[in-house]
Every structure is written in C-alpha cells, then in structure tokens.
Amino acid sequence: MRKSDRLRRTVAAVALAAVLGFAALALAACGSDEGSSNSGVPGSGTSDTIVGAGASFPYPLYSKWGSEYANLNDVKLNYQSIGSGGGISAIQAKTVDFGASDAPMEPSELEAAGLVQWPQCVGGVVLVVNLEGVEANRLKLTADLVAKIYNGDIKDWSDPAIADVNTGVSIPAGKINVVHRSDSSGTTWIFTNYLAAAASDVWTLGGDKEIPWPTGVGGKGNEGVAASVQQLKGSIGYVEYAYAKETGLVTTQLQNADGKWVEPSLETFSEAAAQADWAGAEGFYLVLVNQPGAKTWPITGASFILVQKEQEDAKRAQTMLQFFDWAFTDGGATAQGLDYVPIPEKVYQLVESKWQTITAAGAPVWPQ
Amino acid sequence: MSTLAPPSGDSVRTGADGPVPPALAALRPRSHARRKTVDALIKTSAWIAATFGIAVMLLIVWEVVRRGIGAIDLAFFTELPPVVGEDGGGLGNAILGTFVITFVAALIALPVGFLGGIWLAEFGRNGRVATGVRMVANVNMGIPSIVVGVFVFAALVKPLQHYSGFAGSIALAFIMLPVMARTTEDILNLVPNELRESGLAMGVPRWRVTLGVVIRAARSGLITGAVLATVRVAGETAPLLLTALSSPYWLDGLFGPEGFFGGPTANLTKTVYDFSGMPYERMQELAWGGALLIIVAVLGLNVLMRLIFQRGKEW
Amino acid sequence: MSTLEIDAQTQTGPPRGAAQAAPRVHHRFGDPAFRVVTLVSGLTVAIAMFTLAGVLIYNSWTAISELGLSFLTTVAWSPSSGSYGALAALAGTALTTLVAMVIAVPLALVIALLLTELVPPGMARVLGTAVEMLAAIPSIIFGMWGLFVLVPFMQETVAPAVTESWLGQLPLLRPGETFQGGGFSILTAGLVLAVMILPFITAFSRDVLLMVPRVTKEAGYGMGSTTWEVLRKISLRYALSGVVGATFIGLGRALGETMAVAYLVGGDFLTVPKSLFDPGTTVASLIALQFNEATTKLDVSALIYMGLILFAVTMVFQVLAQIWLRRARRTTGGRA
Predict the structure, then answer these.
(1) Is-contact C328 C259, C-beta < 8 A?
(2) How far is B86 from chain A (nearest CA, A)?
(3) SS3 A305
(4) Which pLDDT value is given to residue C141?
(5) Which residues does A135 contact at the CB level (< 8 Å), separation at least 6?
C-alpha cells in the first residue's frame, strides 16, 4: 500500500490504542479504588451510599463530615447541593434518602408530607462585599441599610446613609451591584426573615425561600452568589459564613437587636444559637434571626434534615441515622472548624427521641 | 483571484458620442471611485471579520490552556474530587463517567443512524417517505439539547424516580442519531454509482453490494462522521443536567446507587459546570483543567480526523 | 442515481463469475431483510422526534391546563405561590437572539464571501477549518470564558464607557431599573452567542455561495463589476434563499443555546429587560437553572411547558430553514 495509506493506518492504530489504553487504565484505577464492592445491590455489599440533596448552606460541612465518616466506616455520603427547595422536593419524591433545607417546614406541612425534620447544625449568614480598599469586617451595615439596598432604594455606595455609619472608612463610589439567589433557598429564607424582623418598615416582601427581587442578579446556590461577588466589583451578596471564610470574601459588621455592632464568628453565632428554645418548638420549627444579646449575630439559622417518616428499607434507614448520630456526637469539632455551631447535647437528645417515631414496616428503626 | 480591474472611466454609459437618452441616463452608475471604495471597504471588513472570528477562537483556546494546564497531572485522571476547601484530588470519576456515557450513547446511536442513513441513501432516495424522514432528521438536529434533556427526564428519570448515567446516554444518543443518519447519507451519496452497478452486474445481492462495496469505499468518511458525531455529544452539558446529574464517586456497578443504571453518574461537563461556579480556588482550577481536557479532545479529534482522512463532514 | 436493480432471482442461466461464489440462499431474505432493517432504522429517527413532542405535551399538560396561554404573557416565577409566566424568558430569548443575529449575520456573510472569492482555495480551506474549529468548541467553554473574561471586561470597561456616553441615552442601551453594571447582561450573552453561531451561518452561506455558477460570476467580472457588486447583484440573487436558510439555522441555534447563556445572562427571571445592559433570562437557561430545584408537580410541569414552547419555536425556524435551503438548492441546481 502507498506510504500515505500506511501513515494513516499507523496513526489511526496508535490513536485507537491510546484511547483504549487510557480507558483500561481508568477502569483499573476505579476498580482498585472500589475494592470488591461491585455487587451493585444497595445495602447488601461492603459499601453503602447515603444519598442526600438540598441546601447549599451546610454543603461544606456535610461534605467534610461525609469524607471523615467514609474513612471510619465503609459508608459514603453523596450530597448534592441544589438548594433547599430542591432538597424538599427530592425527599418528597423519594429520589434521595434525606433532604436538607434551611427553611424548616411547618408542623402541619410535615404531617401532610409524612416527613420528620430536625436541626443538624447552626450557621451564620453574612453579607459579603467586593469593594476595593475595604477590608474584612470594616464596613458597617444596619438592617435598614441592607433592606434598602436589596429594595433598590439605595443604589450607590456613595449614598450618605451608608457613609453616616461608616465614618473613617473610605468606600469607593459606584453602583451597588446586588447579588441574590436565583434558586429556591433556605439561606434566602433566613436572610429575608431577618430583614422582615429587623427592618420591618422598609422590607415588605416578607421572609421566604424565593423572593420577587426588585433588583439584582441571581446566583445559583451559595456558591453562585459567592462566585458572582468575587467577579463583580462593587457588589454585595449574602452567603453562609463558610463560603465567605473559605473564599476570602470580605464580610461586614452588622448591628444586632441590642444595637451593638458585631462581627461574624463562631462566637457570635453560638451566642445566637444559645438563645434558641428548641424544646418549645414543635417539629423543631424555629426562626433564629435577630436574637437578643449583646454578642449575638443577627442572621443566624439552623439547617434541617428531612426524612420520610415511613422508611422502605430498615437497614438503609439505620445506616443513615447512624451517620447523623455520629455527626451529632463526634462531628462537633469539624463543624466548629468550619464555623458552624454544633447542636448542643440537650437538643440532640430531643432529636433522638424524634427518631424513634421513624418506622419501617411498622417497626421503629431507632434505636437499633 | 477573480477580481478583474474595471475598465478605466465610465466609457460604457456616458456616451462619448453625445447626450445619453433619458432611460439610459437613469441607469447612470455611481462613480468609479465610489464603487472601488465600497468594494475595498467590504473586502477589508471581510478580512477583519475573519480575523476577528479566528482571533476569538484562539483567545478562548489560549485562555483555557493558560488556566487549565496547571491542573493536569496524573492525579487529575485518577482521583476523586476533593472536599470543598481542600486541595488535591482530580476529576477521575467525571472523566470515566463521560467515557462510559458517551460510549453507550454511541453504541446505541451509531448503528441505528448508520443503517438509517443507508436506507436514505440507497433505498429511500427521493421518495416521499425518505424526504419526510430527511426533513424530520434535519429538524431533529436543530432541537436544543436542553429540550432533549427535558424529554428524557420526563420519559425516564421521573417514572423511575432516579437520575442515571444511562438516561444521560439516551439523551446523547437522541442527539447523535439524526447526525449520524444524515452524515451517512451524505457520504454514501458521494460514492459513484458505477461501483454499485458493477457489483449488481455481477449478481451480488443488493445488501452485499451496499455493505461490502459501497461502505468500504466510503469507509474513511463514515469513520470520520462517527467519531465527530461522538465527540460532539461528549462536549454537551445541558442534556446531562437533567439525566445523569453528577456524583462525587466512581461509577460502581450497574444497578446500585452509583451504578450506571441506578444512580447519578459523574461526568466531565456537568462537573466542570458545577466547579466553575464555585468560589473555591481548587474547584475552579479543576474546572479549567476539565475544560482544557474537553477542548483538547474535541478540537484534537476534529483535527486528527481531518488529517487522517482528509475529507469528512464537519458537524 | 442509477435505478438498475438487478434482481438476482430473475437471472437466466447459470450464475457466472463472482456470482457463482455468492450463495443463492441469501437472496431470498437477505435483500428484503436488509431493506426492512434499514427502513426501520430510518424511521426511528422520525419516530424519535414525535416521541419527544408527545412526551413533552403529555408532561406539560398539568401546566397547560392550569396556566393556559396566559403563561406566555405573564411575568412571574414563584413556585411557592404557584404563579408562573414565560414572558420574561421569552423577551430575554428574543433580545439575546436579536443581538446575536445582528452581529453574526453580516460577519458571517462577509467571511463567506472571503472564503469563496477573496482567498485562494488552499487558504480558504485552512481558514474554513479554523472557523469550523470555532463551531466545535462546546458551549460550556464559551460560558466559562465569558464568565471569567468577558463579564469583568463588560462590567469594568464596556458598560461604563457606553452608558456614560451619548450612546447610553439610546432606547435599548439606556440602563433600566434592574441594571447591575452590565457584566451579566443580555448584551454579554448576546455577544458570546454571536460568536457561537457565526461558524454555522458562515459554513452554510459559504456552501450556498459555492453553488453559484462560475460562468455567471465571471460574466459579471468580465463587465467590470467589483467583487462586492458580483456578490450583491449576482451571487446573492442565486443564493438568497440559501443565505436566508443559513440565517434561520443560526437563529435556531441561538434560541436553544443553554450553557453559555446560563453563565452570562444574569438569571433575572422576574423582569422583562428594558436594556441590553440589564440582566435577564432565556427560556433555555431558565429551564437549565430551575429544573433541579423544581419542588411541585406544577413547577416541573411549567418547566416542561417552557421546554415545549422552546421546541415548538425552534421547530418552526428549523422547518423554515429547510424550506429556504431546499429552494436554494433548486435554484442553483444542486441536489435537493
């Protein structure tokens, strides 16, 4: 055959060999990672997976917990951060083992949906800004200011109302680029409940997972908001604290219900969490924003786990509850490392008693 | 170059022999200089446009290479993504997932498309049915891939109540099918009839002529078409958003929660999409690495196919 | 194409030569079986599309019966209150597509002109390949590039420059109520869309222009026409249907483009954008961004309803494109 033909054949053969070789390598690598867990039958093999979806608020924490837990047991956590709304619908549709939401369902809703919910951690929602020259926790904002910014009433950073509370801080003038959530979000729920509580005469849109925002661009998930604020100069957004901390975004001070200026930190979140009266909350439905106290962070909220009250597979349900049990008892340090407030022991006991109402085929799955 | 210089002056119309009749005068051409200017302007803008188009492409490729090359190492191909906020890790599961999903999609779509293309070229030809099928195939190729994703979600994911890599394959196969059919048809149409006639004249049955003679003659074009169709869907994101979703774990078995049929399957495009929107540096780095891999694979295979086979349909 | 169909079964006399080696038994069902198999495969393509349409209609029925046609004229998207409206997305789709077409069509035409008339064939192939490479780049890459490179550029350079100049007073350019700096905006998305559909319109236009008979063009040149005049008065007359068809193809792609737009358009699904610099949303990106969040049955159904609308619109343009392209082939004598 001609030289050009031979060349073609060689190149094609080499390319094919390379592709197949790589595929084989990849399969081998994945196979070695898995060990012998290719049984493919859920719950029966040496490795289980708990599937969850929902809020992006606790995603960094659950992700970390999942990886630590997997090192201790052969159980993996597959958590997709798709927003609280997505989490709620996923658990209702039973496409996941648990749903996660920052906006708790009301007791009547829980009843109707056949779900059980409990708080898994508490975290703070912070305002982040992208302003040249403004460093972390230098900028001060009142609830009124934030509400007006998100209303579109205050449009520019040079507005006197902002300057009034920020004497000595040089803020570059320019349009305020507002970033909010585009998806159905429990973080939004916490944030807007705060505005409704602390700036009730300015903020009239209420507290909900989705808001008909008068202004601003939408980011998907906490990640999206953080990424947008990173990209756009002069922007402001609200995110769960871990997202600000991990990415180095600049946070602001806020004025709490006592009128004191506070900075976001584990300490101020814990102060707010300590005020919570979980025992008195039916179905653990509790709004934690704007708590009294000199050192409380005003935008704090709990993140909830939702599961089906009637489970289909007892073993699977137990595996899942074991994970959460571990998270409650041993996951505190990890949580604090990411500046989430762990749920206190007393509340954990309340949660455990709630677990006893979860059944599979009539029999309770907890304690095993 | 076929631009011939126009004859000097407006000798044609102004009539060296006296006044021009009104009717002709109405056709008075614009001045020579003006026509030339307009022409030059258009030519310049053509060059600028072409340069712009190519420049943008080079710019994009350059940016992806620049930002993504740092992420590529062996671990990139063999490890799972790191936990958010941490370093290390790779996109191994996503790469494998895309491989498998695309492979299965090709397994489904290529043979069917190939056979369908044969029918269009050899049997249906200009008949009414063939014309109809051809039209539908062309329309099909224009359906946005997100709509295909919605379709597969409604048809497969919702009833079964879980996402799966297989659903992703179905979506990609749907997209590939008309492409493969039309590509096959076009390539087969290029094969001269003499080949068919000589085969048939020797008493060889039709199917044998088609498969043995015609296909063999068109082999390189068909391979190119198949590879390009596959590579094209490998870069799709939208249909996988609603079907395969994503997973932080390796593909594991068939029917389990990480199985190909049983649960969401990691894939490169969705993972790159997710990670690129995260504010974490390592995730963004991995996203660019993934983007680089995608571009290298897509463009690389395109160029490779062209080089090896010299012809072959584009898209 | 030859219609010689020698049926081996009607052959008279003993088979000769190669046919002697061919086993006879295949003739009985080999050919018919082959025809059937390939026919079924061919029909699968058609059936697939109708299945898609059917499934979409079936699954959007909940939304259609509850929201009806006013869905198309309402601005809303609030799953918690059950109110949905496609108008904001439709407006955004129309605007981004318009921007993309206004930029891409003239550019594509002149590039096609370049490829057919102004450069030698060798270079035309290289340039053509380069433009085709642009088409091969997946949309997610465009989206990422747009996010990290174009968005800051628009936000910090272009938008301020335009909005603060006299241009910023013009109707579509004057920033509206929802202006967010112009980084994430209709214009940014439209620009990237233009780059994405450019190679498609170019390729189709080039193919159509290549079909214009040489002789006619040469006649034009022979009379002293400039390149542009030959294009305008001769080539385009032949190729007009084809170019229109190419435009429709590009239009269809722009309408359905999801990923790049999702990154860049700003995700504001509650307003009809008043300015190119305002953020907005498109049907395709709305579906992509909202689908996994969908909480209720109506929510999912409304999104599928959107998918159905998108399908219908793109189908209309595709059909139109096919009609025009066939007309073009007929005019220039190519194969239909």
Answers:
(1) no
(2) 9
(3) strand
(4) 93
(5) A250
Q: How confident is the model at residue A366 (pLDDT cuts 50, 70, 90)?
A: confident
Is B222 within a domain?
A: yes
In degrees and rounded to multiples of 5, residue B81 shows phi and psi of -65, 150
Look up residue B164 and give its amino acid.
S
For C184, the token pair is 């994430």
d(CA A340, CA A102): 13
- Within 13 A of A17's CA, how many CA atoms are on the CB side? 6
User: Domain for residue C272, yes or no?
Assistant: yes
Count: domains in chain B: 1
Question: Is residue C277 assigned to a domain?
Answer: yes
- Residue A237: pLDDT over 60: yes
Query: Among A124-128, A213-217, A308-312, A330-334, which stretch is predicted with the lowest mean pLDDT?
Result: A213-217
Q: Which of B173, B174, B153, B177 is nearest to B163 (CA)?
A: B153
B47 lies in a domain?
no
Beta-carbon separation of B201 and C336 below 8 A:
no
- When divided into structural domains, chain C yields a total of 1
With CA atoms as reference, report the closest residue to C290 among C326, C331, C262: C262
Nearest chain A residue to C76 by CA distance is A212
Average pLDDT, chain A: 84
Q: Structure tokens of A222? A: 């906490």
Contact predicate B53/C199, CB 8 Å: yes
Q: Is the pLDDT of residue B7 over 90?
A: no
Check CB contact of A354 with chain C, cutoff 8 Å.
no
Percent helix, strand, coil in chain B (nearest 5)? 70, 0, 30
Q: What is the domain extent for residue B104?
A: 69-158+167-240+270-312
What subunits make at least 3 CB pairs under 8 angstroms with C?
Answer: A, B
Q: What is the CATH number of the domain that holds B77?
A: 1.10.3720.10
Closest by CA to B200, choosing from B212, B190, B189, is B212
What is the sign of the dihedral through the CA atoms of B97, B98, B101 and B103? negative
Q: Which residue of C has its CA nearest to A153?
A: C177
A20 → chain B, closest CA residue: B99
CB contact under 8 A, C180 and A82: no
| CATH code assigned at C226 | 1.10.3720.10
User: Which residue from C132, A95, C287 is spatially nearest to B238, judged by alpha carbons?
Assistant: C287
Mutate to test the interface with A, among B252, B288, B310 (most CBs of A within 10 A): B252
Q: Is residue B25 part of a domain?
A: no
CB B262 within 8 A of CB B162: yes
Residues of the domain holding C218: 68-333
Write the pLDDT tens digit of every residue in B104-124: 999 999 999 999 999 998 888
Q: Residue A50: closest CA among chain B residues belongs to which residue?
A: B257
Contact status, residue C77 vs residue C85, Cβ threshold 8 Å: yes
Q: Is the pLDDT of residue B313 over 50?
A: no
Chain A residues with CB-CB distance to C180 below 8 A: 175, 177-178, 215-217, 232
Enumerate residue ranges in chain C where pLDDT < 50: 1-11, 15, 18-20, 22, 25-26, 334-336
Instruction: Answer yes or no: do B163 and A226 touch at CB < 8 A.
Output: no
Cα dihedral across residues C151, C153, C156, C158: positive or negative: negative
Residue C214 lies in a domain: yes
Which DSSP letter does residue B11 get?
T
Alpha helices in C211-296 (DSSP H): 214-222, 227-230, 236-256, 259-264, 283-290
pLDDT above 80: residue B315: no
Strands A115-130 and A250-251: antiparallel
Please report whether residue C52 resides in a domain: no
Indicate which of C140, C201, C311, C316 best probes the interface with B, i.e. most B CBs within 10 Å of its own CB.
C140
Q: 76-105 in B: which are within 8 Å (CB) of C?
A: none
Tell me which chain B residues have a C-beta less than 8 angstroms from the C-beta of C304.
150, 154
The count of residues in chain A is 368
